[in-house]
Amino acid sequence: MKAMLKYLLIVLLTSSNLLIASRTQIIDSVSIYQNLSQYNIKIHNYEKATLFATKALQFSQKTKNYESQIQQNFALGKLYFDLNRINEAQNYFEQSRLLNTKRPVTFCKLKTLYFLAFCAIEKKEWTNAASYFAQADQLPIATSIQNKANVLLLKKAKLYYSNNQLTVASENFTRLLAQTNFENEKNIIEEAYLYKGMIALRYTKYKDALDMLEKALNINRITKNLKSKESILLHLSKCHKGLRNFDQAYSYLEEYHLLKMHLAEISNSKQNIENFKKFKRDEQYKDFIDKNKQQQKEEDAHKYSKLINILAVALITILSLLSFSLYKNNIIRNESNKLLKEKNQELIIAKNNAEKASKARAEFLSTVSHELRTPLNAINGITHLLLEEKPKKSQLNYLASLQFSGNYLATFINEILEINKIESNKIELESISFHLKELLENIQSSLNKFALTNNNEFHLLFDQNIPDYLIGDPTKLSQVFLNLINNALKFTQDGSVTIKVKLLKKEEDTVKINFQIIDTGIGIPKDKLELVFENFSQGSVEINRKYGGTGLGLTIVKKLVKVLGGKIKLESEEGKGSTFSFSLPFKVAESLVETTEKETNYDENQFKSKKILLVEDNKINQMITKKMLENKGIVCIIIDNGESAVQLMHNHDYDLVLMDVHLPGINGTVATQEIRTFDTSTPIIALTAISLDENREMLLSYGMNDVITKPFVPEEFYTIISKYLPN
Ligand code: ADP
After folding, report:
1. Atom 13, ligand 1: residue with shortest CA distance
2. Top-confidence residue, 148 or 330
C-alpha cells in the first residue's frame, strides 16, 4: 500500500511537471506572437500586427501573467495610436495603467501615462491631458530616465503646438532646450529651435524667430536632417519676408523648393526600393511563419513523445507494482492455506475424537441399560408371578410398589435407550400406510380413563379434509402423541385437553398437517419454555415430587418430531395452560396396507401341553420365563448354550424355541442360523434386552420369526407366543 502511495506521488509529480512544461509553452507562445506582431509593424502590416498583439494579450491573460498583460496592453494601445484609432488606443493604455497601479514604477508606466495624455490631446481633452502629464512628472523615474523623457517631452510640446496651445508649447520647448545634452540630443535641440522659431513667427516676433531658426539651421548642418531643413528654410524665408529682407526671403524660398524637389525625387526612388524591400520582407515573413509552424510541430511532437514516455514509465511501474502485489498475495494465500490445512487437520482430529467419545458414550449407555434390563426383568417377572399367586393383603401393597418402581425403571431405561438411538442416528423410520383419525381415536380411548381421574374434558377436533390414509411412521407418531397428551392430562386438573388436527396444505399426493395439544393446566413459566425440552429437565422439584416423571419425555418428543420432519413449538402461560404444536408432511395412501400391528388377544387353551425349548443362560431369567410358561400349561425345556440347543433340535421336536441372543459360546443369532440349515419350520423367537446394535430387522435376518424384548410385559409375551404356537 505504501509503495502504491509512493507511486501515485511520482505520477502526480510527473503530471505537475507536465503542467509546468505546458505553462512554459504558453509563455513561449506569448513571446512568439509578440515577435510576430513586431515583425508585422516593421513591414507596415498593421492588420496582422494587431492580430498577433491581441493573441499575445489573450495568452498572457490565460496564464494570469500580469507583467505580460501590462506590456501587451501597452503594445496594442501604441499600435492603435499609430493607426490613429484613438479610442481603442486609449482603452488599452487605460487597461495597462490600471493593471500597473499597485506595481513598482517602470518605464512602461511612464510611457502609458504620456500616451494617455497624447490620446487626451488628440481628443482635445486638455484638462485630462494635463492631469496625465502631471501624474507622469511626479513619477521618480521621470527624471532618472532623462534621455527617453526628452523625446517624449518634445512630442508633448509639438502636440501642444499642433493644438495651438502656443504658450504651453513654448514653455515646454524652453524646458527641453534647458535640459538637453547637446552631444547626444542634437536632433531634439534642432527641432526645439525650429518650433520655438515657428511660435515666434506666429506671434510675428520675426527677430526672435530668426534667431531660433538660424540656430536650428546651424545644428542641421551637423544633423543633416533634410526633412527638418526643408521646414527651417521655409520658415526662414517667411521670417525674412516679415523683416522685409526680400532677397534673403527669396533666396531661402528657392533653396526650400530645390530641396523639396530633391526630396520628392528621393521619395520616388525610395518608393521603388521600398516596394522591393516589401516583397523581400513578405518572403521572409512567409519563411518565418513556416519556420514557426515547423518549430511548433516539432515541439508538439516532442511534447507528445515526452508524454508517451512518461505514461509508458507509469504503466510499467503500475504493472510491476501489480505483479509484486500479486506475488505477495500469493505468498500470503499460500501461508493462509497452509494454516487452514493445519487447522482443518486439527478440526478433523477433534471431530473424530468427539465422534469416538459420543460413540463410546452411546455404547456405554447401551451396555449399562442392557445390563440393567436383565435384573429388571427378574424384578418385574417375579413381581408379576407373586401378584398372580394371590398374595396376602399386607403383601399386596408392597408388591404394588415394587411393580410401580419396576415399571418406572423400565420406562426410564427405555427412554434413555430411545434418546441414545436417535442421537446415534440409529433410529429407523417406518413408511407404512395408516389411518390417522383412527390412531388418534385409539390413543384418546386408551387415555380416557386417565382424563377422568383428573376430571378433565378430553376432545379430539379432527379436520374432515384430511385424507383417510397416510404414509408415515405411526409408531413414532403415537410415541409423540402419548408423551404430549399424557403430560397435558397429568398437568391439568378439572380443565380440558384438546387435540386439534388441521390440514395446512394439500398437493397432489402430499399433505402438511398441523397438530396442537392444548390444555388448560398449570402452564410453564416463561423462563422454562426452552428448558423443558432438555434431558432430565423438569419444571421444578415440586413438580417432580407431585407429578413424578423422568424429565426425558419432551426431549424424545422434540427429537422425534425433528426426525419426522417438523419442529415442536411451545406456547404457555403459567396458571392458564400450554399448547404444544408441530406440523408434519405425509404422503397420501390409496388404502391401508397390512401392518405389523400387534394383537393383544390370545386363547389360553392354545398353550396347553405345548413344548417350548428355552435357550437362556441367566438362572433367574430361566426361572421366571419357565414359571410364566408353566403358568399357562406349557412344558418348558431349558438349555443354557447355543451349541447344545442346535444338538437338541437335531433330535427332538419342539412347538417353539425362545432363544436368548446373548449366550456364552455361539450366541443366539448364530445358533438360529445353524438350526435353520436343517429346520425351517419350528418358530424361533428371540429374547433380547435390545441394545443399540440389535434391532428387529437384524434379528429377523438370521431366521428368527419374532422378537420379545426384556423386561417382558407379560401380556405382550403371551400374545406373541400364541401367534406362533399351533392351535
Ligand atoms: P416428565 O416425565 O417429567 O413429564 P417431560 O420431558 O415430559 O418430563 O416434561 C418436562 C417438564 O415440562 C415437566 O416436568 C413439566 O414441568 C413440564 N411440562 C411438560 N408438559 C407440560 C404441560 N402440558 N403442562 C405443564 N407443564 C408441562
Report:
1. 538
2. 330
Listing from the earlier edge strand, what are the strands of the sheet with 635-639? 635-639, 611-615, 656-660, 684-688, 706-709
Task: Pick the atom of ligand 1 nearest to 538's CA.
Answer: 14
pLDDT at 597: 47
Query: What is the position in ligand 1's atom list of the atom closest to the CA of 539?
Result: 16
Residue to mutate (ligand 1; options 538, 556, 568, 571; most atoms within 8 A of CB): 538
Cβ–ligand 1 contact at 197 (below 6 Å): no
Task: State in Å: Cα 380 to ligand 1 middle.
Answer: 26
Any atom of ligand 1 within 6 Å of the Cβ of 519: yes
Rounded mean pLDDT of the chain? 83
pLDDT for residue 411 is more than 90: no
Tell me the C-alpha distance between 363 and 375, whole Å. 19
Instruction: Give the nearest ligand 1 atom to 521 CA.
Output: 24
Q: Is 687 helix (H, G, I), strand (E, B) or coil?
A: strand
**In the predicted model, what is the mean pLDDT of residues 85-113?**
87
With a CB cutoff of 8 Å and minimum separation 6, the contacts of 98 are none
Interval between CA 528 and ligand 1 midpoint (Å): 10
Q: Given this model, what pLDDT does residue 515 score?
A: 97
Return the best residue to mutate from 524, 540, 557 for the ligand 1 pocket (most ligand atoms within 8 A of CB).
Answer: 524
What average pLDDT does this structure show over 487-492?
A: 93
Per-residue pLDDT tens over the stretch 681-705: 999 999 887 655 567 788 889 999 9
The C-alpha cell at 517 is 395439544
CA–CA gap between residue 629 and residue 720 (Å, rounded): 13
With a cut of 80, say whether residue 543 has pLDDT above it: no
Q: Residue 483 has which C-alpha cell?
A: 408423551
In terms of C-beta distances under 8 Å and separation of at least 24 residues, what long-range contacts does 604-607 make, across chains too?
604/632, 606/722, 606/725, 606/727, 607/632, 607/633, 607/634, 607/718, 607/721, 607/722, 607/725
Q: How far is CA 316 from CA 4, 13, 523, in A?
A: 13, 17, 77
Atom 4 (ligand 1): residue with closest C-alpha? 549
Instruction: Write the Ramachandran bin of 582: left for phi over 0, alpha for psi from -120 to 50, otherwise beta.
Output: beta
Write out the three cell numbers for 369: 441399560
Nearest CA owner, ligand 1 atom 7: 553
pLDDT digits (tens, 9 = 90+) for 19-42: 434 444 444 578 888 888 888 888
Q: Is the CB of 538 under 6 A from ligand 1?
A: yes
- Cα–ligand 1 centroid distance for 551 (angstroms): 7
Write out pLDDT tens, residues 331-341.
Answer: 999 999 999 99
Cα(538) to ligand 1 centroid in Å equals 6
* Maximal CA-CA distance, the chain: 197
Question: Is ligand 1 within 6 A of the CB of residue 554?
Answer: yes
| 283 — pLDDT class (breaks 50, 70, 90) | low
pLDDT in tens, 98-110: 888 877 777 788 8
- Residue with the larger pLDDT of the pair 392 and 513: 513
